[in-house]
Amino acid sequence: MPADATAIAAHAQILQSDARALTDCAERLRTIGARLEADGFAPRWLREAVDAHLAACATAAADLTAAATCLRRYADRARH
Questions:
Q1: Within its chain, how far is the Cα of 19 from the centroid?
Q2: pLDDT at 3
Q3: What are the 10-residue block averages of pLDDT along the chain, 80 residues in total?
Q4: CA atoms within 13 A on the CB side of 19
Q5: Residue 40 lies in domain
Q6: Among 78, 69, 80, which residue's Cα sits nearest to residue 7?
Q7: How far apart are CA 37 and CA 48, in angstroms?
Q8: Count of structural domains, the chain
Q9: CA-CA 20 to 30 A from 61: which of 5, 14, 28, 30?
């Protein structure tokens, strides 16, 4: 059965949209982290937790972007 290039491309778009959402989350976490650091009142564990979540968002966004890129290439090959 041939691959459905349109469906594959649609999945790629969804993954890229999810990556953008995670990038937005990471930016919000950066802002929160900066405020926590500037205030100086937050416990160290809270700042570390924010940093860990920020890193997880950045990693997941990069992984989703890479997957979307691979799916777009696959869709292009399926069309030809």
A1: 3
A2: 80
A3: 86 98 96 91 93 96 98 92
A4: 16
A5: 5-79
A6: 78
A7: 11
A8: 1
A9: 5
